[in-house]
Structures are given as structure tokens and as C-alpha cells.
Specification:
The structure holds three protein chains of three kinds.
Chain A (H helix, E strand, L loop, with lengths): L5 H39 L6 H26 L7 H18 L5 H25 L4 H20 L11 H8 L1 E2 L2 E2 H19 L1 H11 L1 H7 L3 H27 L10 H11 L11 H20 L4 H35 L1
Antiparallel strand pairs in A: 1-2
Helix pairs in contact in A: 1-12, 1-13, 2-7, 2-10, 2-11, 2-12, 3-4, 3-5, 3-10, 4-5, 4-10, 7-8, 8-9, 8-10, 11-12, 11-13
Chain B lengths: L3 H16 L12 E5 L6 H17 L2 E4 L7 H13 L4 E4 L8 H9 L3 E5 L10 E4 L3 H15 L4 E7 L5 H16 L6 E8 L4 H14 L3 E6 L4 H11 L7 E4 L3 H9 L6 E3 L2 H16 L11 E4 L4 E4 L5 E3 L4 E3 L10
Helix pairs in contact in B: 1-2, 2-10, 3-4, 5-6, 7-8
Chain C lengths: L1 H6 L8 H20 L6 H8 L3 H15 L7 H17 L4 H25 L4 H20 L9 H8 L1 E2 L4 E2 H19 L1 H11 L1 H6 L4 H27 L11 H10 L11 H20 L4 H29 L7
Helix pairs in contact in C: 2-14, 4-9, 4-10, 4-12, 4-13, 4-14, 5-6, 5-7, 5-12, 6-7, 6-12, 8-12, 9-10, 10-12, 13-14
The chains are: A mainly alpha, B alpha/beta, C mainly alpha.
Chain lengths: 342, 336, 331
């Protein structure tokens, strides 16, 4: 972007600061929530705040964080993807099955398979939504059935068991670098890369532009279709990665792998302050949302809280997170208005 | 497992030859049997289906195996209703919710259809017989026996069940808890926790990891779920608890082969699902042919291929009762 | 302005899609007849409708919410709250009339809660009802405790279990038909329905026109969840079982029926008739494939293709039209 005239610079600086403020606050919301949860569990149990337990939480949250990040990319364009779990399952099963049949395959080659499958599946979603003009919920509801159904048909009542997978696949996800689980490190890296892409690259910024105001983006000359297609494809690639990690982590790859993750990824993104009406939030927030869910799971087991309360508490947490988010957003809007008046 | 099919053929032939003249009036074969598992696409249920199909083929029956792709009770009832409308001679099922399937099964029985449950029972008046893989007591004991192989000196144990609404898992847990208090053999164990993982692999993994965090002295994680037990084994391996914590319970040998062979686990238990399906279909056939009446306590049936004679117990329950314990040395012998 | 509008015949958008659905139902029926010799019998067909009453009631309720441009994915969890509440009431020997009214009222209450959060506080409905879905499911488990309840007496089971006219027509089907007519009247023949669609088309314009947007939205949510309460009464009759996991996972099918019925997920467009036709289509297909013992996975694939194909139709038609007149092709 070239340097505009002085008045505009002044204005833009103000608005830039405001936007930075907004973004910081959005993640601050979930961070405060997380800190409160952490404090609560740390007070109530003496095992929560140990390094070992915290690394456990981190590796539990890792894969969901990637899935939530995938969901967030699509949510930012004012769309939705309920085929997240089905894409993960499809990519994971085909990859695991391939690995079982070709145990000699090099790791880097194998990693490309789920990414390519994810990209293809995501692109189908993107084409349907962007060019087919099918509402996102319907399109991905349909492809969810389709992808999951095809996984069943392909698997033919089989599963890929841990003894058939190449051993490196399992040992690599168990590895720790300086005490940090590789899984958590990989997830962090992926989320940060996606965040940087959305933040600093024109293509990434366009996702925000299309999501926050499609009409303005259109008049600005953005081809919304391409941006939406790209977002879905990126979502698919991330699901492919998440699916592979899921398969390697659990060891037994079944046809139902990651079923229901469309809802958990959505929940994580929403808790993390990603707006379901597009354009607001960040993938880091979504990843933190996944950490919140994993923390609740972990803390409630440590406290030996009955299963039923877990569901109830997570549900209430989602509503609370959305409410807090809305309150923050309206506060920001008010503060922007006063800034504008000045 | 010696050549199942040939033995079966031989056995079926013998039985037919021996018993046929006695009941010449009753139809002997060519029955239409329809079977639905809890959900299709899970290897365990597919194996029971294969077993049942093998029995039907030997006995000259038609067996149709179908069902929804996930465990949803309303879909199962719909499947059963569709079965009833196709006027089969018998229905075999593994019930998701023992009560919710009862109305449609009672309708089936009113129409003269023989109803057999296997794996998971339906309400007693809704079915003719229940081919139970293991009695609850037997299941509880075999899982604790496997736990004893893991940790002979005993210690803290925790359970992972599918959900508080799954009757057999809850019954197993109840009996195991009692046994650890009353039976001297199992008194070395102390039950510290029960968690639920909904037959979901990732959830089971996380629950196992969280259990190990919550109970630093935990020795064994026991699960009746064939999904949760391998996931727990994997969690132990991945989180560096090998040798400190063991997983056991029911699991397909293929799913836990890795952990037994690499020494991170010592013992799991199960039964032969192929044979369970075979026996369920075989007994259903004999009931249809009038050669076996499960409603009479003490009635016996010989299933040559399974190499065993089964006896009808209370409420038409026929216990298959052949638990298998897999260890490093034996796991390689099983092909499922 | 206003006179102009009232003079215009205010037919709901009836033509193309509903006709297509009707044609598809006939085609599906014919296909089912060839698939299975057991399909074509009154007893069989009426019997099979019972499996679509519960999702059907939820779909009618969801259609009201969707007409506003909102969504409620917590409805299936509300059914579970309803069934376990019925089990408690049955335990205390409460007469069914009172129990049913109470469950419908509790449904309405839960719906009101969703509505207040979504409409009064302006929270996104998908996020709110996602939370509510978990919270209400948890609530159902907490109320219902671990074991299912089955000792419902015959009066509790009448609505869901009885079949009239020579044991052919299920009572629940008649109840569904009555509800469908009522919802159709409400949405297409009353001011309330007109307001719903107008809010869905343009919320702000409706507000400026003096429509109490918040109140209408809350009402729609409450009505939808009240129907979920009614669905709970049917559930108890049909399955004779109340557990916290009742109707778990059925919401996706309900959403499918609503959008396949032509309801615009962004609100403002669609007909109740379309939703009912979509239910009949899905029902016929599932019944036919079920009777032919076609496996669950294949059915899932067929459903997915149908859904995508169904909604892709306008885009394909537009693309074909563009192909036919290449000179007019622009972006």
C-alpha cells in the first residue's frame, strides 16, 4: 500500500491503533477466561498446575486447535464448514490405509497425501459455496454426508490398526522437544503460520475484507468467490493435517475418526472470539478456544466431576464466551465512535 | 482356530442328519434371517455378521445383514421396522437401547418372527433368546484376571465406560467393584475412578491421559469398550507411562497387537466375534427348526463348529461364554 | 404503497421447487417399488411415516426460526429434556394431559431462553444454540440420571404408539398433520408469519416499519422448542424409553429437511409446504432403501448427493441459461 496524504495517515493511524486494540482485546477475552479457569482448577486440585499436566492439556488441545483454526478461516469469510470432521476422517483413513499398504513410503511423501486430499475436499466445498452459490451450511452438510459416506464405502468395514501403521508415524507424534510435546509444537507452528498469513499477506487480509463487508470488498474490486474458494481450500488442507495427526495420535484409524468435530471445532472457534458473522476474530483465538475446551475436560476429570456436568458446563461456557465477546465488541464500537468524534 | 468353515459344514451335516427325522414336519432350512448390529462399519460387528452369514450358508438359510452407519437408536428401530415388513423368519440384533427397541420387537414376535439378541440384550419380553458373549460376572472376572497379569501385586484401578447409559459396561463396573471388595483374589485392587468416553477413540485417549494425571498411583485402566481399551494403551505408550500404568479390558487382537508385541502392554481379553455371530445364527436356526427351545431352562444345544454345547439359562439367555485372553505369545494366533 | 401490496395476490412462492419435490417424491416412490416388493402396502407406508414424525415436528419448528434468518440447533437436546421430564412426571403419577402440557411449556421456556439470548442480546444464534445444545443435553442427563426409564403407562404412550383405523394410521401422523396445518396457517396466513419472513428478508426495514423484532424472534424460538416438547411426548410413546441421549445427533437430519424444503437459510424465503414435502421425500427414500436393505453408508452418500444437487439446482440453471445466451454473458 502506498503512502496516502497526511490527513489520511493520521486517520489511519488512529483506526489502525483501534483495530490492534480490538484484536488484542478479542484474544484477551479468551485469555482472561482461560486464566480464570486455570486459577479455579489450580486452587481446587493440586495436580492441575504441574508441568506434566499442563503438557498433557497442551497435547490434548493441539489437534483440536488446528481444526478450530481451519474452521476459523472459513468463519472469517462469513461462511461455515460442518464437513471439518468428515474431511479429517476421509483424509486420515485414506492416508493410513495407504501407509499400511506401502510401509516403505518416506515420511515427507506421506504427509503430502492428507494435505492434497484435504485441499481437494476443501476446494469442492469452496466451489459449491463460492461459485455454486449454495449456502455454506447446506453445501457442507451435504459434503459431510458425502465424505463420511465415501469413507465408509472405501473402508468396507475395516479399520487400520496401530500394528499396520509405519512405526515412525506413531513415535514421531509422541516425541518431545525439550519437554514440549511435538504435537503441541507442531500445532502452535501451524496456527502461527496461518495467523501470519491472514495478518500480513494480501491474500490473507482479503479473507477479513470479504468477511467483514462483502459489498465493500466487491466495490473495492475483490473477487469474493476466489477468496472464499481459497479459504475453504485452506480449511481443507488444515483438516488434512489435523486428520493425519489425529490418526497418528490415536493409533487405530477408524471410519468414524473425528466425527462430531464439526461441532467441537465450531465451539472452540466461537469460545476463542471468532465471530460467526464473519470478519472478526483470529485463528490464535480459535486455538486458545481449543485450549479452553481441553482445560475444562482435564480439570473436570481431575476434580472427578460426573460426565453429565461436563456437557452442561461446556455448553454454558460457550454461551458465556459469546456473550462476553458481544459485550466486548459493543464496548469497542462505543469507543471507536467516541474516537471518531474526536 | 482350525479351519472353521469345513468343521462347520461337517458339524451342521451331522446335526441335520441326526435330528432331522425326529421333526420331519417342521421346516428344516431355507429360513430368512435378518441381522442388524448396533452400527455397521465397525470391524467387531462386521465379524459377527460374517460369522452369522457362514452359519446361514451351511444351514441353507438366507441371512441379510444391514444397519445404519452410526449407533442411533431411532435409526435402529427404523431398520428393525423395515425388517419386520419384509416378513423374515427371524431377526438377530445387538440392541442400542434395550427398551427403545422393545415395541417393534414385540410387534415382530406377535407376527411369529423369532427374535434373537446378541452382544447387547433387549428387554426380556421383546426377544426369544439372548446369546450373551460372556455373562456379566464372567466378563468382570476375565477383565480383572487380565489386570492381574498386568500387575500381579495390584494397586489402583480406574474404569472407562462408553456412557452411563450402556447397560453391560455399567454392570461390568458394578461387579468388578464388588469383586475387588469381596473376592480375596481381586482384593489387591482398589477402584479409584470411572470415566466415560462414548466409544470415541480421541475422547478415550484424552480420558486415559487425564486419569493418569488425576491419579498418580494409578496402575490399570480397564475398559469394556473395544474402542477405549486400545486408545488407552496408545495413550500410555505416548505419554511415557509404559511400565507404570497398564490398560486392559476388551479389545480386538488386531487393535492391540502392537502394544503386546512391543511390550508396553501385557494382556487384553475378548471373545471370538466370528464365532459369536455363528453361534447366534446357528441357535436361531435351530429354534426355527424346532430343535432348540431357549425358553426352557436347561435346554441344550450342541454347536459342533464352536466345539461346545450351550445351555439355556433364565429368561432365554444362552451364554456363549468363551473368553479369550491375549498376551504377547498368543496374540499372533488370531486373525481378527 | 401499502395498498399496492395488499392488492397484489399474496401467494407464498409456490411453484418450481415444491413441484420438483412432489415429482421427486413420486419418482422415489416408484423407485422404492422396484427396489423392494414389500414397499407398496398401506400398512407399510403409514407405518414408516412414524420415523419422521419426531424430526418432522422439529423441522416445522426450525422452519419458523429459519424464516427469521436464525437457526436453532439445540432442538434435539430439548427433546431429551422433554423425555426425561416426562419420565419424572410419570414416576409421580401425573396425568398425561398435565404432563404433556408441562413438557411443552418447559420446551417453550428453553426456547425463550435461546430467543432472549439471540434476539434480546443480539448474540449469533448458531453460537448460542451450539452452547444450548450441550447445556440442554447435559441437563437431560442430570435430570434423567444414568438409567433409562421405561415404566410409562398406556396413557403416556397413546400419542406415539397407537395406530387408528384398523391399526393403520398412526395417531402421531395425525398430530403431525394438524401441527403442520397450524404452522402453515401461522406462517402463511397471519401477521405473525408475515413479520417473520419480513424480518428474515430485512431486519432493519422491519424494525423501521414498527415490527417488534425482538418479540417476534423470541416467540418463534419458543414455538420451535414447544414443538420439540411435543416431539418428546411422541418419543416416549413410540420408543417407551426416556434417556438423556434421546434424539442425539438427529438435528443434522432436521436441518437437511428444512433446507431441502426450500427454506432460505439466510431467512425471508421458503414455505412450510416445501418442508413437509422434503420430509416426505427423505422419508420415502429412506424407507425404500431401508426395505431394500441398502447399507447405511450408501444411504448417507445418497442423502449427501441429493442435498448438494438439490441446492445446486438454481446455480446450474443459471449457468445453463448463460450458456444458452452467450452474448449476454457477464459477471
Amino acid at each position: 500500500m502506498s503512502a496516502p496524504d497526511d490527513a489520511a495517515v493520521g486517520n489511519r493511524k488512529g483506526s489502525r491503533r483501534a483495530i490492534a486494540f480490538v484484536l488484542r482485546l478479542r484474544e484477551a477475552g479468551v485469555l482472561v477466561f482461560l486464566a480464570a479457569l486455570g486459577t479455579l482448577f489450580a486452587v481446587l486440585t493440586n495436580t492441575f498446575l504441574t508441568t506434566q499436566n499442563l503438557t498433557t492439556v497442551a497435547s490434548s488441545a493441539a489437534i483440536l486447535a488446528i481444526a478450530a483454526c481451519a474452521q476459523a478461516v472459513v468463519l472469517l469469510t462469513r461462511n461455515l464448514d460442518v464437513s471439518v470432521g468428515a474431511m479429517m476422517g476421509f483424509a486420515a483413513y485414506l492416508t493410513a490405509d495407504f501407509a499400511a499398504r506401502h510401509p516403505a513410503i518416506a515420511p515427507w511423501q506421506l504427509v503430502l497425501i492428507p494435505l492434497a486430499i484435504g485441499a481437494a475436499l476443501g476446494a469442492i466445498n469452496g466451489l459449491l459455496v463460492a461459485y455454486g452459490k449454495v449456502p455454506a451450511l447446506i453445501a457442507t452438510l451435504g459434503t459431510m454426508s458425502l465424505y463420511r459416506g465415501l469413507t465408509y464405502v472405501y473402508a468396507h468395514g475395516q479399520e487400520v490398526t496401530s500394528s499396520r501403521l509405519p512405526p515412525w508415524m506413531l513415535t514421531s507424534v509422541d516425541a518431545r522437544i525439550a519437554g514440549v510435546p511435538l504435537l503441541a509444537a507442531a500445532a502452535t507452528a501451524i496456527v502461527v503460520i496461518v495467523w501470519a498469513f491472514l495478518q500480513y499477506f494480501p491474500w490473507g487480509r482479503r479473507i477479513y475484507a470479504v468477511g467483514s463487508n462483502p459489498l465493500a470488498a466487491f466495490y473495492f474490486g475483490l473477487r469474493a468467490e476466489r477468496v472464499v474458494l481459497m479459504a475453504y481450500t485452506l480449511c481443507g488442507v488444515l483438516c488434512g493435517a489435523a486428520g493425519l495427526l489425529y490418526a497418528a495420535r490415536v493409533g487405530t484409524v477408524t471410519v468414524v475418526l473425528a466425527s462430531g468435530w464439526e461441532m467441537s471445532s465450531l465451539a472452540a472457534a466461537v469460545i476463542g472470539g471468532v465471530s460467526v458473522s464473519g470478519g472478526a476474530g483470529s485463528v490464535i483465538g480459535a486455538a486458545l478456544g481449543a485450549v479452553v475446551l481441553a482445560t475444562i475436560d482435564n480439570g473436570l476429570v481431575l476434580l472427578a466431576v460426573p460426565e453429565f456436568w461436563r456437557m452442561f458446563i461446556q455448553g454454558v461456557a460457550i454461551v458465556a464466551a459469546v456473550a462476553a465477546d458481544a459485550a466486548i465488541a459493543s464496548g469497542i464500537r462505543a469507543s471507536l465512535r467516541t474516537r471518531g468524534a474526536k | 482356530m482350525v479351519n472353521r468353515r469345513e468343521l462347520g459344514k461337517l458339524g451342521a451335516g451331522l446335526v441335520l442328519a441326526g435330528l432331522a427325522p425326529r421333526l420331519a414336519t417342521a421346516k428344516d432350512s431355507g429360513f430368512k434371517i435378518m441381522m442388524t448390529p448396533k452400527w455397521t462399519g465397525f470391524p467387531y460387528f462386521e465379524l459377527t455378521g460374517d460369522g452369522a452369514k457362514a452359519a446361514a450358508k451351511e444351514l441353507g438359510d438366507t441371512l441379510i445383514y444391514a444397519g445404519a452407519d452410526h449407533a442411533d437408536v431411532s435409526l435402529q428401530v427404523e431398520t428393525l421396522q423395515n425388517f419386520v415388513n419384509q416378513k423374515p423368519d427371524a431377526i438377530i440384533l445387538a440392541a442400542i437401547d434395550l427398551n427403545a427397541v422393545a415395541p417393534v420387537l414385540e410387534e415382530a414376535r406377535k407376527k411369529g418372527i423369532v427374535v434373537t439378541t446378541y452382544d447387547a440384550d433387549a428387554a426380556v419380553p421383546a426377544r426369544d433368546m439372548f446369546v450373551n458373549q460372556l455373562s456379566y460376572e464372567q466378563a468382570a472376572k476375565v477383565m480383572l484376571d487380565a489386570a492381574l497379569i498386568d500387575v500381579p501385586e495390584g494397586g489402583e484401578i480406574a474404569f472407562v465406560a462408553a456412557s452411563p447409559t450402556s447397560p453391560n459396561h455399567m454392570a461390568h463396573i458394578k461387579i468388578m467393584t464388588e469383586l475387588t471388595k469381596t473376592d480375596p483374589k481381586y482384593q489387591v485392587f482398589k477402584v479409584v475412578d470411572t470415566q466415560f468416553a462414548g466409544d470415541d477413540d480421541a475422547k478415550s485417549y484424552d480420558v486415559a491421559v487425564n486419569l493418569m494425571q488425576a491419579h498418580p498411583n494409578l496402575k490399570v485402566i480397564i475398559s469394556s469398550s473395544a474402542v477405549s481399551a486400545p486408545a488407552a494403551a496408545r495413550a500410555i505408550e505416548a505419554s511415557g507411562h509404559v511400565g507404570k500404568v497398564y490398560a486392559t479390558g476388551f479389545a480386538l487382537p488386531s487393535a492391540i497387537k502392537r502394544y503386546l508385541e512391543n511390550g508396553s502392554q501385557k494382556a487384553f481379553a475378548f471373545w471370538d466375534p466370528f464365532e459369536l455371530g455363528y453361534v447366534a445364527a446357528y441357535e436361531t436356526h435351530m429354534k426355527l427348526a424346532g430343535k432348540f427351545d431357549p425358553s426352557k431352562v436347561g435346554a441344550t444345544i450342541e454347536v459342533p463348529k464352536a466345539n461346545a454345547t450351550f445351555t439355556a439359562g433364565k429368561d432365554g439367555e444362552v451364554v456363549y461364554g468363551k473368553p479369550l485372553i491375549f498376551t504377547k505369545d498368543t496374540v499372533g494366533k488370531y486373525d481378527f | 404503497m401499502k395498498d399496492d401490496r395488499t392488492k397484489r395476490p399474496v401467494r407464498p412462492q409456490w411453484p418450481a421447487w415444491e413441484m420438483t419435490l412432489a415429482a421427486l417424491i413420486v419418482a422415489a416412490g416408484v423407485w422404492s417399488t422396484t427396489l423392494s416388493p414389500y414397499y407398496l402396502s398401506l400398512d407399510q407406508i403409514f407405518g414408516s411415516t412414524r420415523f419422521f414424525i419426531i424430526p418432522g415436528l422439529l423441522a416445522l419448528g426450525l422452519a419458523m426460526v429459519v424464516s427469521l434468518g436464525e437457526i436453532d440447533i439445540s432442538l434435539a437436546s430439548t427433546v431429551a429434556v422433554g423425555t426425561v421430564t416426562l419420565s419424572k412426571l410419570s414416576m409421580f403419577g401425573v396425568p398425561i394431559g398435565f404432563a404433556a402440557a408441562a413438557v411443552v411449556a418447559i420446551g417453550a421456556l428453553l426456547g425463550t431462553l435461546n430467543g432472549v439470548l439471540a434476539a434480546r442480546f443480539g448474540l449469533p444464534s448458531l453460537a448460542v444454540t451450539l452452547g444450548a445444545m450441550g447445556a440442554y443435553r447435559g441437563l437431560a442427563f442430570i435430570v434423567g440420571s444414568e438409567v433409562g426409564y421405561t415404566d410409562f403407562n398406556d396413557s403416556y404412550r397413546w400419542l406415539g404408539a397407537t395406530r387408528l383405523f384398523d391399526d393403520i394410521v398412526p395417531v402421531s401422523l395425525l398430530a403431525f398433520a394438524a401441527v403442520a396445518v397450524a404452522v402453515w396457517l401461522l406462517m402463511h396466513r397471519t401477521v405473525f408469519g408475515r413479520y417473520c419472513f419480513s424480518i428474515g428478508l430485512n431486519r432493519d426495514a422491519s424494525w423501521f416499519a414498527g415490527v417488534n423484532v425482538v418479540k417476534i424472534k423470541i416467540c418463534a424460538y419458543a414455538l420451535a422448542s414447544a414443538l420439540a416438547g411435543l416431539a418428546a411426548v411422541v418419543w416416549v410413546g413410540q420408543y417407551g424409553s426416556a434417556r438423556g441421549d434421546n434424539a442425539d445427533g438427529s438435528i443434522l437430519f432436521v436441518v437437511t429437511a428444512v433446507v431441502l424444503g426450500g427454506m432460505d437459510i439466510n431467512g425471508g424465503r421458503g414455505t412450510i409446504g416445501g418442508v413437509v414435502l422434503a420430509l416426505m421425500l427423505l422419508g420415502t427414500l429412506r424407507n425404500g432403501m431401508g426395505l431394500a436393505n441398502i447399507g447405511g453408508p450408501t444411504q448417507t452418500v445418497v442423502l449427501g448427493v441429493l442435498l448438494v444437487g438439490g441446492v445446486l439446482r438454481p446455480a446450474v440453471a443459471a449457468a445453463l441459461a448463460r450458456l444458452r445466451r452467450p452474448d449476454n454473458a457477464d459477471v
